[in-house]
Amino acid sequence: MQTIITLIILFFLNTVMLNNAQKSIQWAGYQWFLRDDKNSGPGPNNWESNNVWVDSDNKLHLKLRHSSITDQWTCAELYTHVKFGFGTYRWFVEGPIDKFDRNVVLGLFTYGGIDGTNEIDIEVAKWGRTEPEASNFFYTVYPHTLGVSQPNSHGTRISLQGTYTTHQFIWQPYNVIFQSQHGFQHSPNQNIFSSYQTPISFTSAMPHIDAPLHMNLWAFQGKPPTDGTEVEIIIHDFKYTKA
């Protein structure tokens, strides 16, 4: 009888551990953890791991999803197990990002774990703005330490030729060089629609600590798309080349 009770307890503990284990996927050569969270930032939003998946063609999907059962919206986020440092980061993205609703945000970024520091962002967002010419695309670099400098950010208004885009940044000890291109490009010199380089004045504030890589699709201030339409982005590939 004691043996049976012990086995039941072990089975229960194993079940609890499996249920609480963080979900992860393998994609683009790395392990990525999937976020499950309630009422947390940015937003705040609700985050569900089933809003991230890899299809049979090895393409990564991120979805901002509405539940007809709960009438709630849930967001998508994943981040790497390994930390990345200086080098070239490149994403191949499919989706009408220039036509995003004003409450939709797509982020491709490094994040060291402390808000406002050691972060490099490519973000598609209007941040809730309604002006027809409001910027909808941003490159941002946060300083290595709070207070040493304001974040360095560059925003612009983009209008694309299609739904395929290539985005990259080159992180170096003295600057970050951003670039985005129409179509899927392996050469950095073709079909550029946006580019930016951090100024010399920001060099002393440059982030220098290795950090996990994140990708997310979420609702600004927790507000759903104004047209009530779900949003899905497909990332065909990600490449990192160490400096």
Produce the secondary structure layout.
Blueprint lengths: L1 H19 L3 E4 L2 E5 L2 E4 L4 E3 L4 E3 L5 E7 L6 E8 L6 E8 L9 E8 L7 E6 L12 E5 L10 E5 L7 E8 L4 E7 L9 E6 L15 E7 L11 E12 L1
Parallel strand pairs: 4-7
Antiparallel strand pairs: 1-2, 2-7, 3-4, 5-6, 6-7, 6-17, 7-16, 8-13, 8-17, 9-10, 9-16, 10-11, 11-12, 13-14, 14-15
Question: How would you portray this structure in words?
Answer:
It is a single chain. The protein is mainly β. The protein contains one helix and 17 strands. The chain has a 17-stranded mixed sheet that branches. Residues 4-19 have low confidence and may be disordered.
The number of strands is 17
The helix/strand order is HEEEEEEEEEEEEEEEEE
Indicate the structural class: mainly beta
Q: Overall 3D geometry? A: globular
Report the span from N to C terminus: 62 Å
Helix content estimate? under 10%
